[in-house]
Amino acid sequence: MMLYLALPLTILLYWLTRQLYQRIPLPFINPLLIPMVALMLLLHFGHIPLQQYMNGTWIINWLLKPAVVALALPLYQQMIHIKAKIKPIMICCSLSVVISILTSMVICRIMGIDEAITRSIATRSITTPLAMSVSESLGGIPSIAAAIVVIVGITGAVIGFPLLKLFGITDPQAQGLAMGGCSHAIGTAAAAERGATEGAFSSLALVVCGILTSLIAPLMFAIYGAIFGIH
After folding, report:
1. Beta strand segments in the chain, E
2. Helices (H), strands (E): how many in the chain?
């Protein structure tokens, strides 16, 4: 039964939200945020098991894989511009990763948050599969890492462009890098809707920051552990 209801309902919610956004282009009318909230309420108050609903939308989960591969196309189309600015791109992505991990450490330390949670939150700005893997290798909790990643991604998709506009950052390449570096795949989806350049540079930041986080995070947590005597 759910097989015939879950998929049409999910697609319908997404389509309706997109139609609403085209008429009223406000950041919080996000095609990911509103359907997600609506479905959460439906599952909760309808007492519908999550796994049962996911079984009915298996084709969407399957399509995620070719969708990720398709991110290579805008990268290829912008390759000339990427090659010309590869050094500043790498510097920006590296700083983004360091700042993301460092702020997680500092804020969690000040608030007295458990070390396992800290190591889970530190991977918040990279895409979910990488975040789960990296957080587990750091001693974190993959399920918490995944939840934080989704929250950060949705938040970035909703407030990312308005925040960039507030600070006068209007260059499409810079906007794309910021979105991909801070809010990974969900931010990249929002960036791709803005334009091909934003989408390509966001895809690039998504990949580069994911790789850099897997390399830099263990080193930073080794230093963090040595300073505070954490093993």
Report:
1. none
2. 12, 0
Q: How many CB atoms neighbour CB 77 within 10 A?
A: 14
Residue type, 114: D
- Residues 184 and 181: their CA atoms lie apart, in Å, by 6
Token couple for 86: 């590869």
**Model confidence pLDDT, tens digit, residues 112-141:** 988 889 999 988 888 887 888 888 888 889
CA distance 95 to 164: 17
- Cα distance between residue 107 and residue 145, in whole Å: 16
Q: Which of 67, 218, 62 is closest to 133 using CA atoms?
A: 218
pLDDT tens digit sequence for 75-104: 888 888 888 889 999 999 999 999 999 999
